[in-house]
Amino acid sequence: MKRLFLRIFLAFWAAMALVVVVLVASSPYFTRSHPGLDRWQRGAERLVSERLEAGAEHLARRGLGRRGEPRRGEGGEPGGGGPRRGWAFASNFVFSPEGRQVWGPEAPKEISAFARRVAAAGEQLGGREGVVVMAGRPVQTPDSQQLILVSAARLPPRPVDLLEPGALWWRLGLVALLVGVLCLWLAHGLAAPLGALRGAVRRLAAGDLSARAGAPLARRRDEVGELAREFDAMAERLETLVAAQRRLVRDVSHELRSPLARLSVALELARRDGGEGAAGALDRIEREVVRLEELIAQLLTLSRLEAADQLPIREPVELTELVRQVVEDAAFEASARDVGVVVRGSAGLVAGDGEALRRAVENVVRNAVAFTAPGTQVVVTLDEEGQEEVVRVRDAGEGLPEEMLEAVFEPFVRAEAARERYRGGAGLGLAIAARAVRLHGGSIAAANVPGGGLEVTVRLPSAGGDRRGS
Predict the structure, then answer these.
(1) Is 228 exposed, middle or buried (0-12, 13-18, 19+ CB in 10 A)?
(2) DSSP SS3 for 95
(3) Which parts of the chain sit beneath pLDDT 50?
(4) Structure pTM?
(5) How far apart are CA 297 and CA 295, in angstroms?
(6) Other CB atoms closer than 10 Å to residue 12's CB: what's the count?
(7) 3-class DSSP assignment, residue 154
(8) Which residues are catalytic?
(9) Residue 72, number of CB atoms within 10 A of its CB
């Protein structure tokens, strides 16, 4: 969201700053007062006056040659050179009293018209046509020839010449500051609602079904407000559906316990009256009853954890001791499959419900024992990383498809290998572990191990305390 805020701010600021700079830079062209142009014009007038005096003095002393060119001499020349087509900066032009040009570059019509005015007035005149500044006067040569000398300068002004440098920079700085403040307000007004909505989406994705965009966003009358209202409606619908699903699971689990209890009593009666011939079938029924009881117990446990917003008990728990007890029990059961379970390293204290943590670690370890290859080991590693206590459980099984590494912590999700080679369980163990870990403010993740196997990592916030050696 910071990137979006920065992009919006910079886009607004750059666009408005560009508009302001263009307006400030071009404003002299559209105003009556042109200080820079006035300065340029005064300089041009001084230039043509000086050239006019020098040219007039030269013509009065030397006159024109036989070909109509000024004679060369110490006094200089009226035009600073021979005739040429066109002119770019400043030149002198010589005309007859009738307005016919007799020397100099090809004169534009405005200079020719000015020379006729000077001839008609019979005295020195000055004038300006657009960006052409002119000065002219009658001159009499040594041979009593009457001529009209016109000096003209043409210099298109640059935009910077029309500006006031002394006042330009502080004005641009003040405008940039004001525009920046305005754009900051606009960018915040656009990005802040999206940031609030993003926070609600994150809470919902993390499992907080009560997350809502909030009334301030929902009251807006723009597209952001519509999005917020749609999000709140979606979140409310999800909360209703999930609550109904959880309630259904809890109620069904409770309702099944009574028939199972009666089934167990009926099973004992049948075993007493059935004789030896029914023993095998009755043993099978008993195993299925036990598995159903375990499934119902897991469902009730998961329902309680999902319904809890916080831990009912929060006390210091020595994680190393807890894990060692779980590993000891799991190793005894795993020996029947020729599987070893070992623990390495040590961890510190965590704060929480010891029984919930024991069940979480036990479910992860038992899952690893069930899916590791016979004749291998399940390795449980304890460590402390920063402010977290870490438990890693690694097996030597077949691992999981990449798309199932996150889904495996959802209820009733099992790998295809587990479905094909049934090892018991209903896919609730890791879901229970994940919910218990999250209630403790921790995280749980699964990753495939190079060479085969799965590693489940549990991270729990540290509660301090000294670490114990292995």
Answers:
(1) buried
(2) strand
(3) 1, 30-32, 66-68, 71-86, 418-423, 466-470
(4) 0.48
(5) 5
(6) 19
(7) strand
(8) 254
(9) 11
